[in-house]
Amino acid sequence: MDIGRAAKSEKTIVVSGIPNGIVKDDVMADILMIHFQKAKNRGGDVKDVVYPTTIKGVAYIIFEDQEVTENVLQKAEHRLEDKRLGRYYPLKISLYSEHVFTCVSSVLDLSIFGDKYILEDLVQELQKTIPGLRFSPLQSNGQISVQGSFPAIKSLKDNLLLKANSLSVKGNRGERKLDQRANIRTQKHGLFVEPNNTFVHNVNREEQVVVLDTDIYYYMKHFLYKESLTKYNVVSRGVTDGEITTIYLKNSRASSDSRELERAKEGIEDLSAKLHCRLRKERFSLDGNTRPERQKYKQVCESIKSRFPKILVIPSDTHIDVIGSSSETYEFTQEVNRIVKSHFQKKFRR
């Protein structure tokens, strides 16, 4: 469903933290509707509930009036309560926007900071520093899960990188050797993805680090990335951990000015910020489709993408991601659905 065309974004909220598998999807949609209609939750008339979505544990609630949307957002805490759920579940809500991302979930291993910090105090410090993040209780092994927008997760990673590198420097002075690295796992569409690389890398002084959303990185790399780096005489290597990609920038020539690295980093960060506001992502889920249907979706996406030169298509066995501007992704997905539907209707009539 295209939320941007179903209702104005100022009347739509994104709800995360919805428990999965406890009740049927249609029952959960009813529970959500009741919750956001109740006066105690500052709710009102609900036009539609979009659940389930392509992101596990996330729903879109569309209100009849913008005033109700604003009232719901002002409520400090939302608890989803119903006797069919067995207990209450805290919800995180935010105003819908047509960005490529809604939220990112990560599992962090903070155990390497145990000798320097009381981990509970470290978590409290991070919560105050980056208030847009939602943390789970800290586990005894130092692991903690965190959820929030990509910019907030990026700020968290930058913060921890600085702390980890500080420990590494102290280790080189004989105070402490950083022989472990904080690991990160990211959750995308309900699946945990084990990282191929570590969260904290040894960054030398000749490198600059940029943290990007992985889909933004893919889009940038496909359309804009190379030319952005070439003009700064910079080369790069990317390390992807699920939804987050870390780019390490280095001068392409030993004699290059170190200020070129700074300018390259600033240029990529500025470009990333612009893309984050402009892009959105749609997904064709191939789960449950027959093999001919999956093949047809992939064939159609491939055949029409030349008509949409600014669209990035990323196919996989289970889904096809489409990234581009809001209008172009909408037109692209509508055209694909139309062609696929027409193809199988004709085949069925034969």
UniProtKB/TrEMBL annotation:
The lineage of its organism: Eukaryota, Metazoa, Chordata, Craniata, Vertebrata. It comes from the Eukaryota. Keywords: RNA-binding. It comes from Chelydra serpentina. The keyword Disulfide bond does not apply. The keyword Secreted does not apply. Residues 11-98 form the RRM domain. GO terms for molecular function: RNA binding. This is RNA binding motif protein 43. InterPro entries: Nmi/IFP35_dom (IPR009909), Nucleotide-bd_a/b_plait_sf (IPR012677), RBD_domain_sf (IPR035979), RRM_dom (IPR000504). PANTHER family: INTERFERON-INDUCED PROTEIN 35/NMI N-MYC/STAT INTERACTING PROTEIN (PTHR15225), RNA-BINDING PROTEIN 43 (PTHR15225:SF8). It holds the Pfam family NID.
